[in-house]
Specification:
230 residues, 5-stranded parallel beta sheet, 37% helix
Length: 230
């Protein structure tokens, strides 16, 4: 639940108008702003967003510092027991902890109105903690449901933004076919019904180290402009 998180930016007491949105600022990077291109651009985005949306509450989720149970035999076994009609108190203590935590993660995701994802590219994809988080909120009955005509997404009133850094240029050109992170995240969100998904890329710094700071500066400018529309 978002009530368990400390807002990075709380809704301003001086703000007026309609109730603010709840924004999840999801980072999947073990490095801080000083040592990370994606985190530096992410900070620029979220600062600019807050400046134009003071009524909104921004909740940070550092995935490297977040308890995310991996889907394993124990979790699937616990879910199987519950689906078979067992009460929650019949689960083992370990099963109860993991099932409860996964429930908290998906409920917090559903509760939010907007999502900002920030990550580097590791070996053509994102860090595994982001996949673990996706597995936590990709839950039938919560973020999508099955129908006679096939599954449909339930997050049709949400918006998402993606900030991604990579040493090579992956958003287009020769290496575009190798990019799996943004494409997979986009597929996930589309499946879950999220109608708006935009991105700012910070890329090519390793390929052109002499231009790395210029690439970062331009990405920050792009992020600040995009934040005003998000």
């Amino acid at each position: 639940m978002l009530s368990q998180l400390t807002p990075l930016f709380a809704a301003s007491s001086a703000a007026s108008g309609a109730p603010g949105k709840k924004v999840l600022y999801i980072t999947a990077n073990p490095n801080g702003v000083e040592h990370s291109y994606s985190m530096a651009v992410g900070k620029a985005f979220i600062d600019a967003y807050h400046a134009v949306n003071p009524n909104d509450a921004v909740y940070p989720i550092d995935l490297f510092q977040t308890d995310i149970p991996l889907l394993n035999g124990e979790v699937f076994g616990a879910w199987g027991k519950l689906q078979a009609g067992a009460s929650f108190d019949r689960l083992t203590p370990s099963e109860q902890v993991k099932v409860s935590r996964l429930g908290e993660l998906v409920d917090g995701f559903v509760e939010a109105d907007k999502y900002v994802f920030v990550n580097p590219v590791w070996n053509f994809s994102y860090p595994p903690v982001l996949k673990a988080y996706i597995d936590a909120f990709f839950v039938a009955g919560k973020t999508f449901r099955y129908t006679a005509d096939g599954p449909i997404g339930l997050l049709t009133d949400k918006k998402a933004f993606h900030i991604q850094a990579s040493g090579s240029v992956l958003s287009e050109g020769h290496f575009g076919e190798f990019e799996m992170a943004h494409r997979h995240l986009g597929a996930v969100l589309k499946f879950l019904g999220v109608p708006s998904f935009e991105a700012v890329y910070v890329e090519g710094m390793a390929a052109q180290p002499d231009k790395a700071e210029d690439i970062k500066t331009q990405a920050i400018l792009n992020a600040r402009e995009a934040a005003k529309r998000f």
